[in-house]
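The freezer alarm interrupted the setup, so I double-checked each line after restarting. Inputs confirmed:
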Amino acid sequence: AQTVTQSQPEMSVQEAETVTLSCTYDTSESDYYLFWYKQPPSRQMILVIRQEAYKQQNATENRFSVNFQKAAKSFSLKISDSQLGDAAMYFCAYRGSNSGYALNFGKGTSLLVTP
Amino acid sequence: DAGVTQSPTHLIKTRGQHVTLRCSPISGHKSVSWYQQVLGQGPQFIFQYYEKEERGRGNFPDRFSARQFPNYSSELNVNALLLGDSALYLCASSQGAFSNQPQHFGDGTRLSIL
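Predicted 3D structure, all chains:
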C-alpha cells in the first residue's frame, strides 16, 4: 500500500517570505500523480498544484512550485511571497495509475502566516 | 458554474441510527468519490463511483454503502452509527475515472455522533 508522510505538523512563515512544506511517499509503481491540496477553516479542499511522475520538470502555479525528486520519493511544496490568505492545512496526496482511483493523503501540515 | 455541493452541512445523530449524505458533482463530471476526514487527520478514501458503477472501495466496513444516480449525483449511507463515525465527510468529483484527472471537493458534511 502507498503511504504519504508529512513530517511537519506545523509551519510558520512571515508575510512576503518563502516557506517549503515537505512530503515523502512510498510506492512501487512507476506511473503515478502527486497533488498538494489546501484546506482552509472553511473546510473545502482546494487543489493547489499537481505533478505527473513521468514529467521531469517541476510544476509551477503562480507563487506555488514543487520540488519533485522521484528517486528520493520526495515532493515538497514551495510557497513564495506568502500571503495571509495562504494560512491553512496543506495536504500532500498520491494517486497511482495502477492501484485504483483513490487519493492517499498525508496527515497534513498546518501553515501559519504572520504579519 | 456551481462547484461540488453537499448536503446537509452539519448533522447530529445518535449511536445505532442510520444517515444518508448527498452530493451533486460539478456539471459534466461523471465520477464521484467519498472520503472520511477524522479531526486532525487527512481524508481517507471510502468509495469511488463512475457511470453509476462502483470503481473502488476503501477499507471501511459494510455499514458504509453508496450509490450513484443517472444524473451522476451520489448518496453515502452509513448504518448502525458508531461514535467513531464522527467526522467530516467529503465528496469529490472528476470528469472521468482516470488517475490523472484532478478531483474537486465540496465543503463536506460534518457528522457528529452522540
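Quick read of the result. The two ends of chain A are 41 Å apart (CA to CA).
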